[in-house]
Amino acid sequence: MSTRWPSLFISHGSPMFALEPGLAGPALTALGQTLPRPKAVLVVSPHWMTREPRVATTPRPQTIHDFGGFPPALYQLEYPAPGAPDVAQRAIEVLRAAGYAAAADTQWGLDHGAWVPLRHLFPGADIPVFQVSLPARLDGAKAYAYGQALAPLADEGVLVIGSGSLTHNLHDVRFDDPDAPADDYAIEFAHWVGNAVIRGDHARLQQTMAIAPHAQRAHPTAEHLWPLMVAAGVAGETATGVRIDGGITHGVLSMDAYRFGAVPEAAGA
Predict the structure, then answer these.
(1) Model confidence over 100-157: pLDDT tens digits?
(2) By the 8 A CB rule, do 120 and 28 touch?
(3) Do 233 and 143 touch, CB atoms closer than 8 A?
(4) Alpha carbon of residue 95 to chain centroid
(5) Nearest CA to 42 among 108, 128, 123, 109?
(6) pLDDT tens digits, residue range 145-159?
(7) What's the gap between Cα 48 and its chain centre?
(8) Using CA atoms, how far apart are residues 161 and 244, in angstroms rounded to an integer?
(9) At what angle do helices 184-199 and 226-235 cross, to 10 degrees?
């Protein structure tokens, strides 16, 4: 019987994804319904980057509205999930065992890279959630290794989510038109990455920024891509991925998600 949890990569797009679910929101809700209940959810987001890994041990994480210029309704949303202090302490242990100078953070809550997609994935907000920061100096291989360091948690009933964006060029985003026609470069880049994920070609995936078509335009800075490498690293070198089609919003934001690995046969194993 399989006991290892899959890992997920989720494109969280614009903060408005919380209010405008589009194609991706219902797809994430359907994905969440296929999963048994994990012990906890661990989210790695580019909106919490630190020099060395930090792990949020907050018992009741606050919903962080870390953005500006959006409609007032967005700032009224909360995601009141409990924290997971005990599991967070275990995350510190596994990171330290892998050579990282991980430390607890007693203040951090849930940034929008965490709570916005979780509103769709687990709308009940009843599963314990905590964040682990993304190291500030990464490349594809180092982000993948970071995921490998977190992998023991997936064997202990923890769902690890890398939350980023499959494409992330804010200069090209048509913020006033979520249904704008998709740019060719975003389509081609997302397709290339998807092929690598579905084939389980993790070596190629780690080289995305160097060899994928339109990589520099899709990611002028790569911090929103690294959570994909983290999720792949958690699953391991033999894991293939399953695409969850999220479409492309605002012309250039690919909202695809990926599940790496099989759904466990028993929850909390």
Answers:
(1) 999 999 999 999 999 999 999 999 999 999 999 999 999 999 999 999 999 999 999 9
(2) yes
(3) yes
(4) 18
(5) 128
(6) 999 999 999 999 999
(7) 12
(8) 14
(9) 10
CB contact at 8 A, 11 and 253 = yes
Closest CA to 237 of 193, 200, 204: 200
Amino acid of residue 227: P
When pLDDT is cut at 50, 70 and 90, the band that residue 269 belongs to is: very low
Q: Is the pLDDT of residue 89 over 80?
A: yes
Q: Which residue has the tokens 């759904």?
A: 263
- Where residue 186 falls among pLDDT bands split at 50, 70, 90? very high
140-154 and 226-235 are packed helices; what angle lies between their axes, rounded to 10 degrees? 40
- Only one residue has tokens 């995305």, namely 208
3-state secondary structure of 170: coil
Closest among 225, 198, 197, 200 to 210, alpha carbons compared: 225
**58: its two tokens:** 């907050």
Grade residue 238 by pLDDT with cuts at 50, 70 and 90: confident
Task: Provide the pLDDT confidence category of residue 266 given band limits of 50, 70 and 90.
Answer: low
| 15 pLDDT higher than 50 | yes
What is the distance between the alpha carbons of residues 172 and 248, in angstroms, rounded to a whole number? 13
Task: Tell me the average pLDDT across 218-232.
Answer: 97
Other beta carbons within 10 angstroms of residue 121's beta carbon come to: 23
State the Rg of the chain over Cα: 17
Side-chain-side CA neighbours of residue 97 (13 Å): 12
Give yes or no for a contact between 257 and 6, defined as CB atoms under 8 angstroms apart. Answer: no
Using CA atoms, how far apart are residues 201 and 197, in angstroms rounded to an integer? Answer: 6
DSSP letter at 264?
A: P
